[in-house]
Specification:
This protein has one helix and no strands. 0% of the residues are buried.
Length: 49
């Protein structure tokens, strides 16, 4: 049985897709953090004023 040739991304994840997923998660985390920080500063600024 030659299951190694089966084009199954779930059983054999390619390093490219994995790197892309990691990059996406990292970018999403950074963007989310920036948005949360700016929102917190905005809310605090309006609260103090």
């Amino acid at each position: 049985m030659t299951d190694d040739r089966s084009p199954d991304p779930s059983s054999h994840p390619q390093p490219r897709s994995r790197r892309r997923l990691f990059a996406g998660l990292l970018t999403g985390g950074i963007l989310g953090g920036m948005m949360a920080a700016s929102a917190a500063v905005f809310a605090h600024g309006h609260d103090g004023a």
